[in-house]
Amino acid sequence: MREGSGARGEGASGDLSSGMTPATSAGAASGRHVALRIVTMPRDTNHYGTIFGGVILSYIDQAGFVEARRNGNHRWVTASLDHVDFKAPVAVGDTVSFYTTTTRQGTKSVTVQVEVEAERYTTGQTVHVTSASLTMVAVDASGRAIPFREPAA
Q1: How many domains are there within the chain?
Q2: pLDDT, mean of residues 68-86
């Protein structure tokens, strides 16, 4: 498994939500952060001349990793990424920002919300592109889920 992607469960049952607490608890990362900001390039376009959805998904995965690292300097892998609806296309030259928030913390995983906005190259207008929720799991060198913090009391 590579850091920032993969599929490992929270516990033996694979229940990723067990032991989760809202990220407003003590020690949790809070607030919206700019995890990534990129300028789109022609190499990332599809046959319609807009940016491939898969390129945006890859950046969402990377942004999730950046946010997970705010919760501890561990190896983090993506266990899941929820429903993604693209609300607006992204054009070549747009500046795309990936904003992240930790919304829940477990003992071995965090849930990260990623909001994607594009600043139009031609007008400077900012539009909402998509959002996603990712479950990121802390793992050891063998790829097994490990606790990254003590459970909330």
Answers
A1: 1
A2: 94
